[in-house]
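User: Predict structure, ligand zinc ion.
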Amino acid sequence: MLLVKRLKEAVIVIDMLKDFVHGALKCERALKIIPNLKKLLDEARKKGIPVIYANDAHLPEVDLEFKKWGPHAIKGTEGAEVIDELKPQKGDFIIEKRRYSAFYETGLDMLLRELNVDTVILTGLHTNICVKHTAADAFYRGYRIVIPEDCVTTFTEEDHQWGLKYEKEIYGAEITTSSKIIEKWKK
Ligand code: ZN
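Assistant: Predicted complex:
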C-alpha cells in the first residue's frame, strides 16, 4: 500500500502590526485582508494548526531598516503591537524579527521543526517585501509554501501581483485563497 506523507501546516502571520496598518507605514489595502485572515486564523486554531506571528520589533535608533523606511514598529511601542482585530490567542506563537525575513536571526526554523511543520502558509504584509523574503528563506530550508492571495497585500496592486508571480515562479509557492484552504481543512 502506498503511504502518503501527511503534510503538517502552520500559518505564519507577518507584520499585521498597528504601524503597518494605520501607523507610521500605513497601508489602506491592509484593511481588506483583515476579515479573510481572521477567518483563516480562527479555522486554523479550531483544527489545531499552529498560528505563528512574525512581528517586526526594531531597536530604537540603530536599526538598519530605518535608513530605508524611517522609524517603525519599534519594540515595546504601540506601533509594534498586532492590530486589535487579529490579536494573538492562547496557544499561538510569537516570533520577533528585525529584518524582512521571518527566518533571519529568529527562532522560526527551530520552532517549525519542533512542531513538525513542512508547509508554511504565509499571510500578512507585504507581498513583495517581508512575505517575499520569508518565502525565499522557507524555500532555502525546504518548506512547501502556500500563499492565500486574499490574506497578503502591499502598497499597490502592481507590486502585489509582482510579488505573487515571483513567489510562484521562483519559490514554487502555491497561490490560493483562504476559502480554498478552509474548504480543504473541513474535508
Ligand atoms: Zn521593519
